[in-house]
Design brief:
The complex is a heterotrimer. Chain A is mainly alpha-helical. Chain A has a single domain, classed as Formate dehydrogenase/DMSO reductase domain (Formate dehydrogenase/DMSO reductase fold), CATH 1.20.1630.10. Chain A has 14 helices and no strands. In chain A, α2 packs antiparallel against α7 and α8 runs antiparallel to α9. Chain A starts with 11 loop residues before the first helix and ends with a helix. Chain B has one domain: Alpha-Beta Plaits (2-Layer Sandwich). In chain B, strands 8-1-10-9 form a four-stranded mixed beta sheet. A two-stranded antiparallel sheet of chain B has the order 2-3. In chain B, strands 4-5 form a two-stranded antiparallel sheet. The longest helix of chain B has 25 residues. The termini of chain B are far apart. Classes of the chains: A mainly alpha, B alpha+beta, C mainly alpha.
């Protein structure tokens, strides 16, 4: 019924890949058991930098999840036929990303056994309550849409009419999940690095570039590994969306830099100086500059038609890494350093932290592999 | 027994009505739980800290020691994981916007006691997703360590850095456990609670009692004749980052 | 034929897994068919509620006390016999009962894994004993 049995038949390469992922997941799980036993002290977090890699990864992958809207919107709302075959790929990516987000939050909690308190004691004044609601709803929405459309495809019947309504609902919902996540940060008066109205637009711009970048890469991988050809037209359109979104994101960052440094309020410039001034113990500065260089390089490739055609995979990788460094590392830690009392705390994720994160990435990779295997199997059966 | 649809609906409706009436009668008869205190005078606990008096006794940490002992605060060697409810920082760090650049070093380096400000409009209670921290009617920002899920959103929200997270089990780092107050467990956030357990017994907070210089004046800010209110009328006082609109209940006489 | 081997092996694993709480309890010293020998407090004859109520519902009462004290600041408890107590695990309950000779014995017998209350709340008698 769930068509998951199609994921149980695969080549040797497929099972080897799944086994590798399971090994990494097991390693991550072992370290998580250690974290449950000893506490979050085994991470690199501190009293001053109380959110780190886990929450940063959550923030980044909420963006990737929201980016499914970039394939759903052109198809369901504007009838762009090229996207017909890849909406399901985008939705599966969204499902895997949201599950990763939930896992990242879960491993970050000090008392995870009490997580249901968020539901038992609803607190509408807290953005985290709304984040939980919007993420759960988005997961449910995408799961239903993906499942129903895939089932209809496998039975060679048209999808039921109400699916279009759900798909259209998922468009503002996708925007909302990332806006709510941005509000988590931008509503805090005491953290001047985040207290900017442009944070939500920035999040959306980086989401709509990192997500399509990953989706394009996944499509190219499918082409190479499974011989599944995604329409050239669809990939081209996705690349254009990614280009404009990346350009807008870079523009937003530059806008922030101008506002902060021209107004020159010391409390605001301090965070940017920590993130970008090399030397004096600013361990994140090299990462931020790599992110900037990669972003510029990616835009150069993407805005040159010849280069964009020839080097699309490279551009996607550059975009993804650049945004991962910026949002999946710099943005969160930068908000905490300097601390409210001016302390510059050194944050570097520890081995247990990296392993748990790798474990969760592997869960996402496993889910994507299984979902795409089902989709491809269904399409193969339908075509034969 | 055959019953028609109409009869079934009639029976269900009457049963529901009867159950509803029972509930209504019961709630009317039951006395209101949590009876209010006899006095209806509003209470807003607050504190005035006299930095001049504190400065006279250089290197004193009686308030910190009293708090640590009373509340089983762990002394953790790794500074990244430290837990502190009251501590001191140099004046220039606490009031950075008041720095002129021309004050003598002796002034800018004076140690200032810092603690939770028990704000009138706390950002931390606003963001807590489980209401594990909330603002009581008497102004104290309370923590419920049974409900806290350790998400640390409140730490992110606090503009003053008043909150600490238990990164590890605190018990091994507590020298002598005071059985009158619980320790906490790893994975929850904690901060100064204005000694609400002592206030319930009619005592002043531990730091207030322990200070040999009478630096701390604690009282009801809602009562115009209370000690802190008198001090605030007589002397010039500042709060930490008042422009944020948090409304701290801790005032500093500079 | 091969299927049968797999099926019976699977069944055996399933039955072992299903009954593992029994094996676990047997392997541990607490397991006994004799009800626990509880030492009553020396100084008090009556608890804050009748013994039957306490046996059945002391955890619910403790949670009610917890919510009252922590969330409502209401520390005053009037017992069934009219006596007034402070709502406190450490002061009131452990003021009379010895944790090891009373609480732990029943918990161990019933297999109630140590309630995590003790991660935070202290047992004054064991602390007093550990002070040299």
């Amino acid at each position: 019924m769930l068509m998951l049995d199609k994921a149980l038949k695969g080549s040797r390469r497929y099972w080897t890949w799944l086994l590798c992922l399971l090994c990494i997941i097991a390693a991550g799980f072992c370290f998580y058991l250690r974290q449950l036993d000893q506490g979050l002290g085994i991470t690199g977090l501190s009293r001053d930098v109380s959110w780190g890699l886990y929450i940063a990864q959550f923030t980044f992958f909420v963006g990737v999840a929201a980016s499914a809207v970039m394939v759903v919107l052109p198809y369901y709302l504007h009838g762009e036929r090229q996207f017909a075959r890849i909406t399901i790929l985008g939705e599966c990516l969204a499902i895997a990303s949201v599950i990763m987000c939930i896992l990242f939050i879960f491993v970050d909690l000090g008392q995870p056994a009490r997580v249901l308190n968020i539901i038992l004691y609803p607190s509408p004044h807290s953005l985290m309550f709304w984040d939980m609601l919007s993420l759960s709803g988005y997961l449910l929405l995408n799961a239903i849409i993906a499942f129903v459309t895939l089932r209809a495809e496998s039975e060679e019947t048209p999808a039921p009419g109400w699916i279009k309504l759900l798909a259209i609902l998922s468009i503002p919902w996708a925007i909302s999940i990332h806006t709510v996540t941005a509000f988590l940060y931008s509503g805090l008066a005491g953290r001047s690095f985040w207290l900017t109205a442009i944070l939500a637009p920035r999040f959306l711009a980086s989401a709509f570039s990192s997500g399509p970048a990953l989706l394009i890469l996944l499509c190219l991988v499918l082409r190479r590994v499974a011989g599944y050809r995604v329409a050239e037209d669809a990939i081209r359109k996705l690349a254009i969306i990614m280009t404009y979104a990346m350009a807008i994101n870079v523009f937003f960052v530059l806008v922030e830099v101008f506002t902060v440094f021209y107004a020159a309020i010391p409390e605001h410039t301090a965070h940017f100086e920590y993130l970008y001034l090399l030397g004096s113990g600013h361990n994140l500065a090299p990462c931020m500059w790599i992110s900037a260089v990669f972003a510029v390089a990616a835009l150069v490739i993407l805005f040159t038609p010849a280069l964009r055609r020839a080097q699309l995979p490279l551009a996607c990788i550059l975009v993804f890494i650049s945004l991962w460094l910026e949002k999946g590392l710099g943005l969160i830690v930068g908000g905490f350093v300097p601390s409210p009392l001016g302390a510059v705390a050194h944050y570097a994720p520890t081995l247990p932290e990296w392993t748990i994160v790798a474990g969760i990435w592997s869960v996402g990779a496993l889910l994507i592999t299984v979902f795409y295997k089902v989709v491809l199997s269904v399409r193969e059966e339908v075509e034969s | 027994m055959r019953i028609t649809r109409k009869d079934f609906l009639r029976l269900s409706g009457l049963s529901l009505l009867a159950a509803g009436c029972k509930q209504a009668v019961r709630s009317v008869n039951q006395p209101a739980s949590g009876a209010r205190a006899a006095s209806t005078q509003p209470v807003r606990w607050g504190m005035v800290i006299d930095l001049g008096k504190c400065r006279e006794k250089d290197g004193c940490s009686a308030c910190i020691h009293a708090c640590n002992t009373a509340h089983n605060i762990p002394q953790i060697a790794n500074r990244a994981h430290e837990v502190k409810w009251i501590w001191t920082e140099p004046y220039a760090t606490v009031f950075p916007s008041a720095q002129t650049g021309y004050a003598p070093q002796s002034d800018t380096e004076t140690m200032v006691p810092l603690l939770c400000n028990h704000c009138a409009d706390p950002p931390c209670t606003r963001v807590c997703p489980t209401q594990a921290t909330w603002k009581r009617d008497d102004g104290i920002v309370m923590m419920d360590w049974h409900r806290c899920i350790g998400c640390r959103y409140c730490i992110a929200a606090c503009p003053y850095g008043s909150r600490s997270f238990n990164f590890e089990d605190p018990r091994p780092s507590i020298a002598g456990i005071n059985p009158d107050f619980p320790t906490r467990t790893k994975g929850v956030v904690e901060k100064c609670n204005f000694c609400e357990e002592r206030l319930a017994r009619g005592l002043k907070p531990a730091c207030v009692d322990a200070c040999p210089q009478h630096v701390f004046t604690f009282g009801n800010l809602a009562d115009p004749d209370s000690e802190p209110r008198q001090l605030l009328r007589e002397r010039f006082a500042v709060q930490r980052e008042p422009e944020l609109g948090t409304g701290p209940s801790v005032f500093y006489l500079v | 034929m091969l299927d049968r081997v797999g099926i019976f092996a699977g069944l055996a694993v399933f039955v072992a897994a299903l009954t593992c709480p029994a094996w676990y309890a047997l392997a541990h010293e607490h397991a006994s068919s004799q009800p626990p020998n509880l030492e009553m407090p020396a100084n008090q004859k009556e608890c804050v509620a009748p013994a039957g109520t306490m046996r059945a519902a002391h955890m619910q009462m403790l949670i009610q006390w917890r919510e009252d004290v922590v969330r409502r600041g209401d520390r005053r408890f009037v017992a069934f016999n009219g006596k007034v107590y402070e709502k406190s695990l450490t002061h009131t309950c452990l003021g009379c009962h010895n944790k090891e000779q009373f609480c732990d014995r029943c918990h161990a017998y019933c297999g109630v894994s140590t309630p995590y209350c003790w991660n935070c709340h202290s047992d004054p008698q064991s602390i007093a004993r550990s002070i040299p």
